[in-house]
Amino acid sequence: MNDPNGLFYSPTQRLYHLYYQYNPSALVAGNQHWGHATSPDLYHWTNHPIALSPPAPSTYVFSGSAVVDVDNTSGFFDRGHKDGVVAIFTLAEYNPDGTAGPQTQNIAYSKDGGYTFTYWDEGNPVIAGEGGGSSQFRDPKVLWHEPTSSWVAAIAYAQDFVVGIWTSPDLKRWTWASNFTRHGLLGAQWECPNLVRLPVRPGVLPDDDGEDAYVLAISLQPGAPLGGSATQYFPGRFNGTHFEPIDEVTRLTDFGKDNYAAQYFYGLEGEDEALNIGWASNWQYAQDVPTDTEGWRSAMTLPRRSYLANATRMGLVMVDELVDPAPVLDTVLMREEWEGNRSVTVDYAGVESNALYIDVNVTGLDAGKISSSSILRMSFSSLASGETLRAGFYFGGDQPFFVDRGLVRGYDNVFLTDKLSVADVWNTTSGTWRFQGVIDRSIYEVFLEGGVHAGTVLFYPTEPLTVLSLSSSDLPRGTNVSVAVWGLKSTWS
After folding, report:
1. Options 3, 258, 387, 449, the catalytic residue
2. pTM metric for this prediction
3. Full residue range of the structural domain in which residue 147 is found
4. How many C-beta atoms lie closer than 10 Å to residue 68's C-beta?
5. Which of 80, 384, 439, 453 would be 463's cystine partner, CB 3.0–4.6 Å?
6. Where are the annotated coiled coils located (predicted)?
7. pLDDT tens sequence across 364-388
8. Out of 139, 191, 387, 449, which one is annotated catalytic?
9. What are phi and psi of 365, to 5 degrees?
């Protein structure tokens, strides 16, 4: 699997639907279909039969999105039908010699709430692009823009570094409206644009006039700062036809290497309006990681809730907050509090899922007493193999948080950058800092200061990591550390 596609929430079913790029015949990308899974809580997922299969030989179903056509603007559904789903996606054709042919935007509709789809054969493609279809024109993300009563699609002209904005009254007839081009990082190509309205914390936006705030997220690969693939985002304003960024700053969604092409769920409102899930991998090594020995490759990230806020020193930031993991929390393995410095250890060999949730809160921080060696360290180790995944946060100096996967030896790849870091900032007003982390058998996701910074890191040990060690050093008196660790239930049991 790779990119998440067509994420939407069905209020009638009370289910989250997630489609994804899926090759049912090999453990590498190719022969792309849309796989399908649903969840009542974003943690427990049920797999379903393939939702979209290629309609013709040498044609693949690439990325796209799905919407609930509540008002039947498309005319595909019967009167009173409130759960009609329309998917819009790229069909990518390939020539007999294997070279890329045209990529066009097509639609299919579902009358059973998103489980089976019918291609609109008489009208596809609904957007062919210039000259009948470029070979690099893909990944439509569709949303409803209430002020203009129109559908909007953001589509990547991948190797031109352009996101085209298109509008439609009915999901069938589309008109080009504008382009957003050559902002931020270019890499070798742009992919999977996401235009999404975001909740905003009060006092965040300059000259706040009550308009909705939007974020345009663009995935690029190869050419990310750490190599391979990454996602950048631009906060701004959207009037239904044109997107204008608030500033010229380039921001990344993740300081790790392993979160790409995240997509937001359609059909949510209020605090949960912007929930996203990304593909937890990097194209530099995605085709090669060693989980093929278990018959699979790639997974999705944990669910994240996004909003715009002001972060200490950094200013405007899209927070990626971990969605409450309560549905999978199991036994509390440790709950400890102390002042200053201490070391604790948790043996989690008995946790069947081999997965943990860690929540650390540090309070009483005093900038006048903190030194450059004041640190909170944590490591996850295997007693059998001696392998260790390390992480930590320095409270002084440039305040970096780091993850080091270089001591995990189950996979050797020159592009698997082993040391990752970000300059995090604890709250100097309240004197507090918070860490949340989820570690599974081969993935570590961390959330700093409630998601001001998020990091996604893959690792592949030769033996399971089963011991957590956590310590604080050179913290002055008056600094308090609170740690809680839970084992996690298997989401598939």
Report:
1. 3
2. 0.95
3. 4-322
4. 22
5. 384
6. none
7. 999 999 999 999 999 999 999 999 9
8. 191
9. -70, 135
